[in-house]
C-alpha cells in the first residue's frame, strides 16, 4: 500500500509562547497518530514571520495510507482539534494542494473531504 505525507499546521494565538505551542502541537500530534506516523518538520522561518519556534512547533507531517478513506478521518481529527482550540486555523497540504480550515459549515466540510481525498489519490 502506498503512503502519502500530509502537512498539517495551525496558527498561533497572540498569547502563545513556545511552551504553549509545544503543548498544542503535541495534542495535535497525538490526535493524528491515529492515522499514521507523525513527525515534526524542520522549517526555516520566512521573512516577517514570528520566528522559527512558532513555525516548527505548529507544523507536523503525518504519513497516511494512500486510501481515500483517510481523508474523512484526517478532516474530522483536525476539526476536533480546532473545536478544542478556538481561535486557531489549520492548514493542510497534500502534494500541491493546500487548504485552510476555520470553523467550516457542513457543506464546506464535505467539500474539504473531497479536496483532501482527491489530493491523496493524485499523490500516489
What does this structure look like?
With 124 residues, this protein is an alpha+beta fold. Helix content is 44%, strand content 23%. It has helices spanning 18-32, 52-57, 69-84, 106-123, and strands at 3-10, 37-40, 59-65, 90-94, 97-101. A 5-stranded antiparallel beta sheet has the order 2-3-1-4-5. Helix 1 (18-32) packs antiparallel against helix 3 and helix 3 crosses helix 4 (106-123). The longest helix has 18 residues, at 106-123. Residues 51-55 have low confidence and may be disordered.
Please supply descriptive tags for the structure shown above:
five-stranded antiparallel beta sheet, 124 residues, 5 strands, alpha+beta, 4 helices
Determine the fraction of residues in helical runs and give it as a percent range.
40-55%
* Poorly predicted sequence stretches spanning 5 or more consecutive residues: 51-55
| Spatial strand order of the main sheet | 2-3-1-4-5
Number of strands: 5
**Which oligomeric state applies?**
single chain
Assign the structural class, choosing from mainly alpha, mainly beta, alpha/beta, alpha+beta, or little secondary structure.
alpha+beta
| Beta-strand content estimate | 15-25%
Question: From N to C, what is the helix and strand string?
Answer: EHEHEHEEH
> Could you give the distance between the termini?
10 Å
Mean pLDDT: 83
Largest sheet: 5 strands, antiparallel
Rough outline: globular
Q: How many DSSP helices?
A: 4
**Rg, nearest Å:** 14 Å
